[in-house]
Design goal:
Layout: E1 2-6, E2 13-17, E3 35-42, H1 57-70, E4 77-83, E5 87-95, H2 99-107, H3 117-130, E6 138-145, H4 159-167, E7 172-178, H5 184-190, E8 196-201
Parallel strand pairs: 3-4, 3-6, 6-7, 7-8
Antiparallel strand pairs: 1-2, 4-5
Helix pairs in contact: 1-2
Length: 208
């Protein structure tokens, strides 16, 4: 597919071309590599509500985390990091041997406080780095937040710098924007980073 549109942030017209690729993988027999995963969750005060939705952002994310746990096995490692104005490790990285306990811990999560995405992201990356086993597990961080990461900052503690430097170490990043307006600038920046992906969860149904 192709189309013509202004380049983001300018009035210059550009031609955009979309390519799609087929896969030889058989979904019936495909087995993913084991994961070394850290889930980083925004628990700031703004996560306690969701205008126009039947459930809060926090409850929707907790439901999503239950689904993540259901997809993991004993071959996978999982860490859960929470952040508001500061960050803490709810679950240190460990093999997923007791899903019920993990879900019970997830259910204890409550929202309140300020938002420091970089603190949570740095702690999530640290959990993955500490248990990384190249060629044995795929390293990845998942970030759930309703705050738009500041893509204009490039200092050593900034969102983009953390994503780029850890991508160079083979750690992928999946960012889930929970309820905030679509951030084209963020998506453009993430598209340049190896192993990075972005999903916009505009309603609670999208977290299912």
């Amino acid at each position: 597919a192709s189309g013509v549109a202004p380049l983001f942030g300018t009035e210059d017209l550009r031609t955009f071309v979309q390519f799609s690729f087929s896969s030889g993988l058989d979904p019936e027999t495909f087995q993913r590599d084991p994961l070394n995963l850290a889930v980083v969750v925004d628990v700031s005060g703004s996560m306690s509500d969701w205008t126009g939705q039947e459930t809060s952002k926090m409850e929707a994310v907790k439901n999503a985390l239950h689904l993540v746990v259901d997809q993991l096995s004993e071959d996978d490692r999982l860490a859960i990091v929470l952040f508001n104005g500061s960050a803490e490790v709810l679950v240190p990285s460990a093999p997923v041997t007791d899903p019920s306990r993990l879900k019970d811990l997830i259910d204890t999560i409550r929202a309140g406080g300020a938002t420091n995405i970089e603190a949570g992201l740095a702690m999530g990356y640290a959990q993955v780095l500490a248990t990384s086993q190249p060629n044995q597990r795929s390293d990845r961080v998942m970030l759930f937040t309703d705050a738009l990461p500041n893509t204009g900052l490039t200092g050593e503690d900034s969102f983009l710098h953390l994503a780029i430097t850890h991508a160079e170490l083979g750690i992928g990043l999946t960012t889930f924007g929970v309820g905030f307006n679509f951030g084209q600038e963020l998506v453009v920046e993430l598209s340049q980073i190896r192993g990075a992906a972005y999903f916009f969860l505009e309603t609670s149904d999208r977290t299912q």
